[in-house]
Amino acid sequence: MGQPETTIGEGREMVEVEKGELYYVCEENVRVPRWQETGPRAYICKVTVIFLLLFLLWQHARSAFARPPRYARQVAGVPQYVLDYAPLVWLDIGEEYFPSDMYAQIANTHPEINLTTIANPPTPLTLHNLDVLNDYGNDGMDVYLTSNIDVTEGPKWLDGVVPDSTGETRDAISCAVVVNDRGSGNVDAFYMYFYAYNLGNTVLGRELGDHIGDWEHNMIRFKDGIPEAMWFSQHANGQAFTYKALEKEGLRPITYSAVGSHANYAVVGAHDHAIPDLNLPYGFLLDFTSQGQLWDPTLSTYFYNYHADTGSFDAINESPLGAMHFKGKWGDEQYLDSDPKQPPPFFGFRKFVGGPTGPWDKQLNRTNVCPETGIPCIIRENLGP
């Protein structure tokens, strides 16, 4: 069967062959593929095709690497659903204090009790043996990991590590995932986020509530591997939402980390946290969230199982246990009013307050999705303040 022909110029014809490819037919009846055609018009065509191909490749690479993957990696010993549904964290566009390496907190501090350095502390301290400090000061609870450098001098280690284009905090383990299997298919997964510094709120021009060390978290409650609800750590109480209600990237729910304070919210915008369980878009105690840098905490994390009957942890893949069992504080003790670092009190509030306790003290075996604070646990079915 003959091929249809189209006249394209004197002595030349263009024919269509299989798969729709076009050929030029010369006077000598030699078929020339269109991509081999010469001349200005053919040159422009080739350049255009090459440009389009490069553009498409760039778009593909941009979409593949500009944000963390929707699906988390596999980790031996960790239920896959704990990773598949792990939160992704949007850090605020104005953030200055990023997720931090847990060991850097030890390397840049020394233990103190009552603002006095512990004499001859065990050395060297590591994340594996940090709980040896529980032998001091009220089973460790009076121990503070105190900065070696005056906080007012702005030590660089407090800045943390900016996540890269994949969402990983390179060379910085900045998260601890703790799994509490409560039996009968009920599992609570805690995603603990560590920051070296917490920048407090500014109230009437005064910065209040700064502290070295900051532990925040989300908790997802699973039933037979299916996520039911997620809790967001905030200041006085926090909030909980059904999994269905949450913003997601694939299966993974989104949490927004407030600039400076790192409190977790389900939506972007301004959040006044003066009233527990209610975040209004205006007020005196405002947090702000936005889509700045996307962080995937599961890419740089330690993993643990928690045993409620003994209040102890099991390490998964040799994660350091001392960091979880340490009962002390992960930052400086609140400075005295007479300390030059501490500005005068503002209606009883201080700029610098004491550092936080670690994951062990975050009610890892709670009955409700929310921790027990005396405030009703409301699980919202719709996103909102």
UniProtKB/TrEMBL annotation:
This is Vacuolar protein sorting-associated protein 62. It comes from Hyaloscypha variabilis (strain UAMH 11265 / GT02V1 / F).
